[in-house]
Amino acid sequence: xxxxxxxxxxxxxxxxxxxxxxxxxxxxxxxxxxxxxxxxxxxxxxxxxxxxxxxxxxxxxxxxxxxxxxxxxxxxxxxxxxxxxxxxxxxxxxxxxxxxxxxxxxxxxxxxxxxxxxxxxxxxxxxxxxxxxxxxxxxxxxxxxxxxxxxxxxxxxxxxxxxxxxxxxxxxxxxxxxxxxxxxxxxxxxxxxxxxxxxxxxxxxxxxxxxxxxxxxxxxxxxxxxxxxxxxxxxxxxxxxxxxxxxxxxxxxxxxxxxxxxxxxxxxxxxxxxxxxxxxxxxxxxxxxxxxxxxxxxxxxxxxxxxxxxxxxxxxxxxxxxxxxxxxxxxxxxxxxxxxxxxxxxxxxxxxxxxxxxxxxxxxxxxxxxxxxxxxxxx
Amino acid sequence: xxxxxxxxxxxxxxxxxxxxxxxxxxxxxxxxxxxxxxxxxxxxxxxxxxxxxxxxxxxxxxxxxxxxxxxxxxxxxxxxxxxxxxxxxxxxxxxxxxxxxxxxxxxx
Lengths: 379, 108
Description:
By secondary structure, chain A is an alpha/beta fold.
């Protein structure tokens, strides 16, 4: 294929989707990748891996990248760029444009078992060149049914990987009984209620993975499944939760507890005020807020707006084509470490009242009703 | 350009995303863009006033943050507003800090 033909193909298809495949050490990432690559729909995928493991991969477009992270603790997305990942993706793009490598319509990045998914995602989103050439696709996280919950209890990296997932593929289910698998699935659902949790051998895995974007308006909508008063799920990666529990660990446990919780509210949301609030919240606490996902009833809009953030990286908001159900309520799910849900609720309410007051005398917009969170997972 | 790390072209904040199919943004035409920018400054200034900071956008393409002593900081990306505000205020802007929330309520 010559360069012009490739350019026109790119113009037709838009940015090339990049799927991040992550999962803790030994959770079966490479085995899953090996199987995914045998499918015809992945024949034109380029694959970037951090390390060549024990499982051999035979694929025509396979490159190795190092874990070279440029991380500045500034609270700004663009300051966290994985240098070598950016170089590798730019090189792939240039080689494809010149016709030096086979055409690829997707990139899969397999990260190391200890990697935080955030730097790779922020590189894709914030790099000035890459952000127009590539887009963030679904994040898939492998969790080993035998040892996965132990990793979750002891290693924050494993929790971050699960929290960032759009799809959680549970591996090694053939090595344990059905009851164990169910318990693992339930725990994962508590930790990340926004992800699809399926076995790694599930026939729908590929179609779920290749859905157009991380938050497709046409895709299966998770929000319909989040009840307004979902029980709060809490876990701790502190060893004291498992076995020898002592009272003096309570405060420490609380400080490190990873919770998912949701809030639901009936009234319209002032978009500008919400944008300022969430930006401030993630600026200060993005290291401990692993995931924010929700739909908002934005004042003045008939259809809902979906928001989706992984740590400080907030994806472009999606204007959905319809409400998932009759209740036109805003719903937001948080996955956070060591943050009391009541504090987020209180903050949200104070900022909402402030935005309503400030904008009440704005003739261009009119009054925005002050609102109050209707229901909280933790209450 | 990012005033913190020097990277170019990072000024598309999610709350003012570039207009594309399916993306929700008010960054569509000149009037909407200006109106939304004015709203954003108004709410941000109500928050910044608690720490005696003020935000302005004299050129429309960059922001100026000024404190009570007249010290100012210029930046180009909306994403840098709160990191810059944190640097210019010893108390900082923590939306989960109860004292800060109380001050915001009092200011209301």
